[in-house]
């Protein structure tokens, strides 16, 4: 029978047997003194070995003082009642100071002396002081709880989802809806539905009768044996075509009707600003600004008429600006005349002979063509550096726009050259020589007229005429204005001007337009021929 150790002292003795005092192992298995020992009272029982004594090293006094049990304590936890402040002091363990009042109120037991957490209440609802309740904490006691029974077998639960899925519940079919419920939600009586159906049938029958009568009447208009001529589909009008460009530009073109007393005349203009400013020729509105003080009326392409007021005019370039009281008018796009080349397609729009919205086409025949306008028509001796075109331009086109293939305004139609005048004071027609003021020049003059009402031009201070010696053309100076820019630069009568600021001069008109290309006060080089010798002088331009 196996011995059961029931006590263990500090010297390693087991079953009441003391170990030898000499430190020997005393029969430990495998030791020098170990040997078979027979059980007591049974000489024939099998031999058994003595247990090897525990090896306990010597304890360090410092560790013994720090971690050892206090004197007089022989268990792990001594009852609190057996400790006194003196015992703690003798054992070296300091007593905890009494709690403060705040800590006692926060963590102390209530004043009514209720049971603590370790004393479950008894049958009467109160705990018995000083002893634990013997009632179990759950019905049946801890022996009936499988979680506290060490003999409860461990069984693995089946994985989630391995079981057979529950069948879906059978949903019964609901009541079926009628057409009246679907369409009207039971808000229309069956009698009303019947009336609606009758009305629908009547409307369908009436439509069928009308269609039959219409088809029968149409067939009676033609003879059954007639043969209709085939017609091709209308031609397309792609962007850039004449109809497409004209349709975009026409709303911005106006016809100007000038009345002075019993006299009346007409011309054209083009809207260049959303404020209602219209650009036209000076000779179109000049009668209204003269002594007679006539009136100017603008007629738009839709037939509307509004009065127009002259803002400013420049007889030297035959340009003028009038304003019409129209809200949000159609404004023409402004292009660049400097980008034109001979042969480019152009469109002239205006009111020749009072025919509003007339469109003619042609090409650019020449650029930078100096043209002196009729003094009577232009109210002054005007010279323009014109764009020449073969588009048909007639009296009444004056002031209208000359547009390129994109619909942008590149010139203001101003003058024509005709083979002669008609009988009885009439005017000659177009022979394919029309002239327009370049829009690059017209735009700058129009802006100045809108700002100040007048325009100042550069002046050289000479009068000249066109000359040629058969090899070289130029402008011969006939007289020099005393104290003018030419006199200050040393230009004399008889000098022939052949170049101004690098531009060749072949006529007196070219001298005028070459000087007006610059601003007043600008110094420019002037190349002369004096008595057969070339000469270059610098003249500071004046103003006129």
TrEMBL record:
| Domain (PDZ) ranges | 449-517
* Record-level Gene Ontology MF annotations: serine-type endopeptidase activity
Gene3D superfamilies linked: 2.30.42.10, Trypsin-like serine proteases
Membrane-traversing stretches = 193-213
Q: What's one Pfam family the UniProt record gives for this protein?
A: PDZ_2
Give the residue ranges for region: Disordered: 1-173
Return the similarity comment: Belongs to the peptidase S1C family.
Per its record, how is this protein called by name? Serine protease, S1-C subfamily, contains C-terminal PDZ domain
